[in-house]
């Protein structure tokens, strides 16, 4: 079957609104236009509206709402808390259906199996690893969703092609009929409460990944935090048979990692299927959870244990997630800019010893006290951004701290501190904060760190050879 560009034909000759014209909004606008819909669009950015005009969409107004067959809302647009976007509220008042790109995509994929991956932390790594393991086993697969490629930018192949999608709580808030052949729930800790309003609402959005699954579909659930363990029990009580995954123990009929070894008890007695030492791209207990959940997902798709582990050694990892960006003598530089909250930062702190830690940015709710048990691994902390004072107030009694302001000054201060270290050490960017005080995104922050490291390493080598 030849590859096809996805078109949304259900709305042919009808008017559809698109609110938010970032990557996913533009992709769904293209699909709607390709399917013959009349598209009107809203965005605060004039440049985005211009791009929509080039696709054949038109700037929308409030007067267009009564004529809309649907309003497609981008994931970044508030739906409920602290208040819905004014256009969302107006559309609801007019009785216009509110939907999202992932929900619409579910209508056009046919019988292609979907693996959906959600969780507070580890979604991108797990999604990429599921895709990698499938391809390494010779299975056709595509990768998309929240990981960076909007679903309507995927070019669909044959019906046997597996679509591996990272799904955020914002995307799941808008799904009704998405039926994942395998739904993966990694973990849940407080995050995005400014958008959802409460931990309960955040968890409810995540649980929508299971809502439309059929009896033959599978759920994979990491059970190493209390909320996720309760989700597995809730699924079991409803008659489902979730595949439980844990690091530190082997759940009955599940998958576990014990002492750096992956165990499988899915269809018989427990058996060891892979040793995990030396997988630098999957370092740390949190990545072992990601690995075990990815393994469970591809096993649920029918891969044998041997097929499922074939691609582990060749997985390259993802940028900004425990990314080893360089070495200078015995010093390893690690970019974990994706660690945008304390829970994520604690995972990278737990993965190393003798850490020179760069942290800070824009703080989320909840403070930083949860990081205290990990500070015995930190030699010194170098703080940047708006959260520097809060980090020092909560953690400064346990670790030496230097306030640096900017990332560049923090790296230079770190280099000065490690210059004469006579043992292995790690310079770790794990901010525990959002990036938006000084950077456009965590990617922008991580790219800046990588470039600064490469520049400083090159300069050091020139100096040493002079």
Task: Give structural notes.
The chain has 466 residues and is an alpha/beta fold. The protein has 3 domains: 4-99, NAD(P)-binding Rossmann-like Domain (Rossmann fold); 103-314, UDP-N-acetylmuramoyl-L-alanine:D-glutamate ligase (3-Layer(aba) Sandwich); 323-465, Protein-Tyrosine Phosphatase, Chain A (Alpha-Beta Complex). It is 33% helix and 21% strand. The protein is built from 15 helices and 22 strands. The strands form 4 sheets. It has a 9-stranded mixed sheet, with helices on both faces. The protein has a 6-stranded mixed sheet with strand order 17-18-22-19-20-21, with helices on both faces. Strands 4-3-2-5-6 form a 5-stranded parallel sheet. Strand 12 (218-222), helix 9 (226-237) and strand 13 form a beta-alpha-beta unit. Helix 14 (407-418) packs across helix 15.
Structure characteristics:
466 residues; alpha/beta; Rossmann fold; UDP-N-acetylmuramoyl-L-alanine:D-glutamate ligase; Protein-Tyrosine Phosphatase, Chain A; 3 domains; 9-stranded mixed β-sheet; 15 helices; 33% helix; 21% strand
The CATH topology of the largest domain is given as UDP-N-acetylmuramoyl-L-alanine:D-glutamate ligase
Strand order of the largest sheet: 8-10-7-11-12-13-14-15-16
- The secondary structure category is alpha/beta
Q: How far is the first residue's CA from the last residue's CA?
A: 61 Å
Poorly predicted ranges? none
Question: TL;DR?
Answer:
This protein has 466 residues and is α/β, with parallel strands linked by helices.
């Amino acid at each position: 079957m030849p590859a096809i560009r996805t078109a949304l034909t259900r709305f042919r000759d009808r008017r559809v609104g698109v609110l938010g014209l970032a990557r996913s909004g533009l992709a769904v606008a293209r699909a709607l236009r390709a399917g013959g819909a009349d598209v009107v669009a809203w965005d605060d950015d004039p440049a985005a509206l211009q791009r929509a005009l080039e696709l054949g969409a038109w700037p929308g107004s409030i007067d267009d709402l009564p004529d809309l067959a649907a309003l497609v809302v981008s994931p970044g647009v508030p739906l409920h808390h602290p208040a819905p976007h004014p256009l969302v509220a107006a559309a609801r008042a007019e009785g216009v259906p509110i939907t999202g790109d992932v929900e619409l995509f579910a209508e056009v994929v046919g019988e292609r199996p979907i693996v959906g991956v959600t969780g507070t932390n580890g979604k991108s790594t797990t999604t990429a690893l599921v895709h990698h393991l499938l391809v390494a086993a010779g299975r056709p697969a595509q990768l998309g969703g929240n990981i960076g490629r909007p679903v309507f930018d995927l070019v669909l192949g044959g019906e046997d092609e597996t679509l591996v999608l990272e799904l955020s709580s914002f995307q799941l808030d808008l799904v009704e009929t998405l039926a994942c052949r395998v739904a993966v729930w990694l973990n849940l800790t407080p995050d995005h409460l400014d958008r959802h309003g409460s931990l309960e609402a955040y968890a409810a959005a995540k649980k929508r990944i299971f809502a439309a699954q059929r009896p033959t579909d599978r759920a994979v659930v990491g059970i190493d935090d209390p909320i996720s363990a309760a989700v597995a029990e809730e699924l079991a009580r409803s008659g489902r048979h979730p595949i439980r995954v844990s690091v530190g123990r082997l759940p009955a009929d599940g998958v576990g990692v014990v002492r750096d070894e992956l165990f499988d008890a899915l269809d018989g007695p427990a058996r060891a299927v892979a040793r995990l030492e030396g997988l630098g791209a999957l370092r740390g207990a949190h990545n072992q959870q990601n690995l075990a959940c990815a393994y469970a997902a591809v096993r649920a798709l029918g891969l044998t244990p041997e097929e499922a582990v074939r691609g582990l050694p060749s997985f390259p990892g993802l940028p900004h997630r425990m990314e080893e960006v360089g070495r200078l003598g015995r010093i390893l530089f690690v970019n974990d800019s994706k660690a945008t909250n304390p829970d994520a930062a604690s995972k990278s702190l737990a993965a190393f010893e003798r850490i020179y830690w760069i942290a800070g940015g824009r703080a989320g709710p909840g403070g930083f006290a949860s990081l205290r048990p990990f500070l015995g691994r930190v030699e010194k902390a170098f703080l940047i951004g708006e959260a520097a004072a809060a980090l020092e107030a909560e953690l400064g009694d346990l670790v030496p701290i230097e306030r640096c302001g900017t990332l560049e000054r923090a790296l230079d201060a770190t280099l000065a501190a490690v210059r004469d270290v006579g043992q292995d050490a790690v310079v770790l960017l794990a901010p525990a904060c959002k990036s938006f005080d000084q950077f456009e995104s965590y990617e922008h922050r991580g790219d800046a760190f990588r470039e600064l490291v490469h520049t400083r390493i090159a300069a050091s080598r020139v100096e040493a050879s002079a």
